Amino acid sequence: MNEKTSPTQRERRDFLKTTAVVAGMTVAPGVLLYSVSQAKQAEDAVTSKVRWGMLIDTNKCAKGCNECVSACATEHGFIDDPHRDSHPEMAAQWIRKVGLRDKQTKKEYSLPVMCQHCEHPPCVDVCPTGASFKRADGIVLVDRHICIGCRYCMMACPYKARSFIHETLENQKPYSPRGKGTVESCTFCVHRIDKGKQPACVEACNKAGHKVMLFGDMNDPSSEIYKKLKEVSSTALRPDMRLNPGIRYQGL
User: Using one digit for the tens of pLDDT, what is the confidence trace for 213-223?
Assistant: First the structure.
């Protein structure tokens, strides 16, 4: 299932979202999984003329630095994840640092990996309910009201960028609600983007003075990322799959 969602599927999705809000469905006191009014505002502002993306300079990314990972955990409340210390393999991690080594030159790279926000996302294609979807501006998200926790999307993702929530969570962020039994992944901090801000990982990286991540509209000739992508050589992870990710890597 992709952007060519049938009218019936769209109607069902809208009905489920509306019903959930009317019923006051919450994952924590005062926290709704989805807000129809907020979603409508976001949809009104979203356009296919924009393609949000990120350019990551692996030459500047230090092996021992985890500023982006920590910023993401703080922004979305992963610090309180009960699995973080006891069962790290079950803990949510929307962004992680990965080490690569060139077989021929032996050069080692350290780079952040998250949801790649593909133009042709396989997670969306395999989702049986339409919970995994792509916004017009290229951001791939999960509607947790429709997600049934089948985890097909996790198996389909070639980047292992999605996590499954095993237990009820507390102390959640109102702008980034999470629900037991659902799948989640990097949202590009959509709550920030829709307000004209940068993703938390990018902001933290810049604040630390590393400036590894460059985020912006890849369709806008006046944007810094558009100009940079024209100047430097960059590559996508798993280019052989022809998914056209929104995240590009410089220096690989």
Answer: 999 999 999 99
